[in-house]
Amino acid sequence: MKNLKLFAAKHVNATTLRVFYILLALLAMALAGGAPDSFGVGH
Amino acid sequence: MILAAAILLAVGIALARGGSLRRLADLPLRWGGVALIAFGLQIYLIYFPEPVSEGLFSPRVGVLMLSYVLLFGVVWKNRTLPGIWLIGAGFLSNFAVMLLNGGYMPITPEALEQVGHTRNRLSPVDGARVLATKDIVLPREATVAWWLSDIFVLAPPFPIPTVFSFGDVLIACGAFWLIQRAMLPSTR
Questions:
Q1: How far apart are CA B22 and CA B97, in angstroms?
Q2: pLDDT digits over B51-72, tens only?
């Protein structure tokens, strides 16, 4: 985890990380709150 | 899958309309980690389901309901963001129909067959769980508030054959609105 943080600090800028965080959070919200029948891999 | 596709499509449309990911970074979204926890709580229930629903007071349903409580918290924390109330209404719609039908999202055997997912049904009896979903198979006449359950069918040749609910539509619309407003320059 520490290595990952160091890598991110060196090679990824804060804006990219923030965009990644927001998209991930929105995806998590939609997937956790939604209930279609094609939820997962394999459909 | 269809909701993930809707979000990616919303980002693509915003970029095509001249929006930027840099603006998305400025969106003051809070409690994103809690949304991830809520999703994480559901993974076991979705990919390792019991063959038939064990009822509203089973531990699995308890965890599912807890995940929705966390999601309502995320919505409340972000209540000033555009479109978030629509996402919250979608959560509420899905949560309500699941609560009224034993804790999972009802889907009819006919709808499941239309999209070719019958093989994912884990038991032939009513109340059977469907693999990789939050669904249980219930006939229409046994479903409370049927109109809030998974009733909208996107059958093949649609590339992602899916049955989804009114709540799912609200969530997709809310997310679309939020992403467009976040990525496009303000018109004011």
A1: 38
A2: 999 989 999 999 999 999 999 9
Helix (H) or strand (E) holding B50: none
CB within 8 Å of chain A, chain B residues 107-166: 107, 111-112, 115, 117, 130, 132-135, 150, 160-165
Q: How far apart are CA B159 and CA B95, in angstroms?
A: 27
Which residues in chain B have their CB less than 8 angstroms from residue A21's CB?
29, 32
For residue A18, the chain B residues in CB contact (below 8 A) are 25
| pLDDT at residue B158 in the model | 87
> What does the mean pLDDT of chain B come to?
93
- CA dihedral sign of residues B12, B18, B20, B23: negative
Cβ pair B87:A21 closer than 8 A: no
**Encoded tokens for B58:** 């089973």
Residues B80, B102: Cα–Cα separation, whole Å? 33
- Nearest CB neighbour to A30, from listed B4, B68, B117: B4
CA B57 to chain CA centroid, nearest Å: 22
Confidence grade of residue A43 (pLDDT, cut at 50, 70, 90) = very low
- Cβ atoms within 10 Å of B35's Cβ, excluding its own: 27
